[in-house]
Every structure is written in structure tokens, then in C-alpha cells.
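Hey, sorry to bother you again with one of my protein questions. There's a protein on my desk that I can't quite get my head around. No rush at all, and the record is pasted right below.
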Amino acid sequence: MLSKSLVAILVALPAAIALTGALALLGPGTLQARTLPVLLLFLPVWVAAICVAFAFRSAVRAALWLGLVCVIGFGLIALARGRGWVVLPS
């Protein structure tokens, strides 16, 4: 249980950031229109990621799956910025 708690603490937050960040950048509408709904969605996504960490049989599986979510989410963000799909204001 302690190892799952550590996974929930250390990996669930970056997974939630990656998911909501990808949604904020790649969702429909303007970036200004998406900002508040995505910010309000962040907390439920984070809590769901924490719950998912405890749903796995082992902490290793939880860490691998949540780590995969992080890689995919941050990869989508990097791909969107690298391809010029999203231009962030400076």
C-alpha cells in the first residue's frame, strides 16, 4: 500500500498535468475559451489519476501505466508545438 501511495503522489500529478495540458492545447475553440474549463477539470482528473493508481494490482503496473499517460500527454504537447499546430502567445 505504501508503494502505491508513492506512485499516486509522484506520478499522478504529472499525468493529470499532461492530460489537461494536451486537452488545453488541442481542444476545440480558442485557447482563451478553453483555459478556464480545463483548469476546472484539472482537479477531478488529478483525483481520478490518484484513484487509478490504487486500482492496479501492483505499484509497478500503476507506475508504468501512469508513466505511459505522462509520456503520451507530454508527447502530444511537444508534437503540437513542434509542428506549429499551436502557437502560444509570448
Remarks:
- Residues 2-83 form one domain.
- The mean pLDDT is 91.
- Helices lie at 2-26, 31-55, 59-83.
